[in-house]
Amino acid sequence: MCTLVAVSACVIGACAPPEAPPPSTSAAGQEPLRIGPAAQDTLGGWLPDGTTLSPFDVSNPIVGWLDPDLLAAVQDAAKAAAADGVDMRINSGWRTIGFQRRLFEDGVRSYGSIEAARKFVASPQTSNHVTGKAVDIAPVAADRWLIANGRKFGLCQIFANEIWHFELVAVDGRCPPLKPNATG
């Protein structure tokens, strides 16, 4: 079992998911209550490097647990992109709070401080991936297509330093100004 502190030392996929805490007491004859491992899941939303998903692969929570309006917009955009010869894929979408925490903590280690990490990785409290309201698109050709055409579907690039990150924020076919990075 990996603890939250030790999880960064685990090779992805090599650690067992966190175990549920001991059951609480229950009334006679009832099953004990348990908090499942999803409460602390540090893998929910992870894909192996180089792996992408179809925007129509709703059986995978990364896609299927996106906000329904965002998912519909991405699917509509993917159909239009395909008509233009562009294959739109998802390399990140919905994430658990635990996985987002893990990404943030990895960012702190990589960039040397919380302040530096915040420019590149949102905290679990601020990431729209945790609520299913953000999606990362691949490959670069699809990013470029979506930057040029996404507003027609309500989709906008949010951060200047992340051409792959899109949210459903266009109003009347217009996207808000880009934020320089995840700190705003």
UniProtKB/TrEMBL annotation:
Domain annotation D-alanyl-D-alanine carboxypeptidase-like core: ranges: 66-144
One Pfam family linked to the record: VanY
Gene3D superfamilies membership: 3.30.1380.10
GO terms (BP aspect): proteolysis
InterPro entries linked to this entry: DD-CPase-like, VanY-like_core_dom, Zn_M74/Hedgehog-like
Molecular function as annotated in GO: peptidase activity
Superkingdom of origin: Bacteria
Listed name of the protein: Peptidase M15
Species of origin: Mycolicibacterium flavescens (Mycobacterium flavescens)
